[in-house]
Amino acid sequence: MSIPIYVVDAFTALPFAGNPAAVCPLESEADAVWMQNVAMEMKHAETAFVRPLADGFELRWFTPSMEVDLCGHATLASAHVLWETGRLALTKGARFHTRSGLLVATKEDKIRLDFPGEAPEATALPHAIVGLNPTWTGKNRMDWVAEVGSEAEVRDFVPNFDNIEALRMRGLQVTARSSGEFDFIARFFAPQTGVQEDPVTGSAYCSLGPYWSEKLGKNRLRAFQASPRGGVVEVEANGDRVALFGDAVTTLEGILRC
User: Fold this and answer.
1) Three-state secondary structure call for residue 11
2) Residues 66-78 pLDDT 10s
3) What is the pLDDT of residue 1?
4) Residue 46 among the catalytic residues
5) Residue 205: pLDDT band by 50, 70, 90 thresholds?
6) How far is CA 172 from CA 10, 41, 138, 221, in A?
7) What pTM was estimated for this model as a whole?
């Protein structure tokens, strides 16, 4: 069996930056165990599997250890592959049926993703996080969010992954207002899912976008995820939805023989 697979760097216009995702276009339904094995083999934060349906595409995301409910960068990467390979016309939006409902990607100057807004609610952390002194903490259905006092604190934070894993949610977002060209910066840690630090986490901005939009009094924001690879995410808060904007570049095209 030969199946095409691509590696796409998402939320960047340059190769070897942003967040790499593997994208595997399928012609028919695949076994979940097989998909998990492919994701484990690829070792990226997420591997996406895209299958055509009558009204769009089924889209599923797997980390090296589990299937997840929502992933932004692999959705952006999947839309990029569909358009780049001619599986979908550039003039048509990509309609993805997922575990988080219908997600739509459209090709504008950048790729635009229509995602659910998931603003965090103020909640005290269940325990202190080593090396972190937050000014505010909260959570949504997926992640904890911790705001700290400065951009330097975000960049300099040294995570204790056992400590973060004990939070027992998908991940921890650490964020602060930016003192430079961006509105805010963030980092994302998810050892619970087999991803210690994610390079650029599209789904995190489903919470960070509404949070910073309310705090800064503006609905269109520009953010930087300060991982070693780094990436830029533009986010627009629209009530119960958010729009994410980013670039993508294909770095590898291959064939799965399994």
Assistant:
1) coil
2) 999 999 999 999 9
3) 78
4) yes
5) very high
6) 21, 25, 10, 21
7) 0.90
